[in-house]
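Could you please consider the sequence and fold appended to this message?
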Amino acid sequence: MADAEAAMAQSRSCSRTYEDAIAAMNTLITRKADMPPPDPRTGELNWNAHFQALFRCIEVLELEDALSRLSVIHVAGTKGKGSTCAFTERMLRESGFRTGLFTSPHLLDVRERFRFNGEEIAKDRFLYHFWWCWDRLKADNEKLPGFFRFCTLLGLKMFTAEKVDVAILEVGLGGRLDATNVVKSPVACGIASLGYDHMELLGNTLAEIAREKAGIFKAGVPAFTAPQQDEAMGSLQKRATELGITLEVVPALENYELHNLQLGLGGEHQRINAALAVALCKQWVMTRAPSEQTSGLQKVLSSGRLPDSFVKGLQLTKWAGRAEVIHDPSGRLSFYLDGAHSPESMEACANWFCSTINSEEDPKVAEPNNGSQLSISGTDDEKWNSRGTMVRRVLLFNCMPKRDPVTLLQPVVNLCSRNGFPLHAAFFVPPYSSYTSVDSPKASATQDTSWQQLLQRHWESIWQKKLSGGSGVASLAQEERREPQNELLSSLKTSSEGHSQNGNILGPSSAVIRSLPAAVDFFRNCSNHHPQLRIQVLVTGSLYLVGDLLRLLKH
């Protein structure tokens, strides 16, 4: 009977296309679908009601028993939780285990959220599991869950049906009431670095935010955390004590004598994420029943060393849109992509950008003038590297309107300047895709850029304050004034003051460009028409922006 039902489900799913599935998922991405009903007593939004409704969905999908057998590693955090999950998955995969990985958001295709052994799920398997879940939930009298909650249920169905050895789940938002928290008995829980994000939902202090993140802790389940500020650590420890569980601050990678290990993900901050991933993998392996596959790993881990498969996994980990560099075929245009979108992650992004361009083959524009600090003086000859190429570093930026742009832009300006690689200009573009659609519809030719114009004004204000502060960026800007024109911005100038005939809006050190494709075309044209220029574009502020750029560059 079960085989016959599966065959019928397979037949029904084959008659409906991938585009049909995407259209169905799009109906779940509305503000109403994701907003819980108000509490009748207080009038406030009742997020707990949405969370509790998931358990009814689990019954409908007949997942109760399967979930109790699913081996799960659960990771929350403000910054680095996705990278931690990526490191964790790769280490266990390299160790010979069949892995499932659930992350968000996706950059190019919704199937990225559901990975098996590092690969996004195949379309035919996606369609089978999608329609299996969709049809049962639609047939139930209860309202369909919102998009992320549905994706979580779908992922759990996939992982249980495909019989993975381990499922690594990245929390979507918070922890306590996140859809992934329906898993009652994970093998290990991890907390990546905490900071200020989603404060309207999680709280206004680090203590409150940490309390929500610690909501994934379970009685009897060991918990691990990256080093945290005292305020956050206090909340995490308090929750662990309430549950009677251990909370371990993970040791640095250097404790495993991995001082010179080159991680697959760039940036010094990734060593923190990798250390958390190592602790989670170690816990998972050590709790497995001894077998031919696990005994060797357990023996090495018990000695305080890391198995070769763990080291290889750390070296090979890749995570699209995070600390990723793409060199355009011209050879003189490079994009540095990082989906940072919180103040803390923007700091890490800026440091990674500076470190990366410093280590690349072409020498940097200015050499260090002391043992530790890089700076740029105002002499004309320092603008040129040893290959006779003038380097221009620019920011390509957008962020969601709910975020404070000053707290995102300020760290980039300050740290790039302090590290000796100040930005020469900034470019702001409207979104090419939307968080209200699973796919990415093409941007309208008449797209509103009022938000990007506000971002531009904030940038120019920060820039002017830097000028008056006597920093490295000031001397660079003064040098620019001595030149006839800034090579990049001059390409957009027209006789119309402040505007170009193509709808681009110019500032002294910035421009709003009407669309992301237009921005990419502009950078490529600049590179082609100015052979003396090497353009380094830092793309950050939004994972949607990073995903859209990846899509454009791949096509």
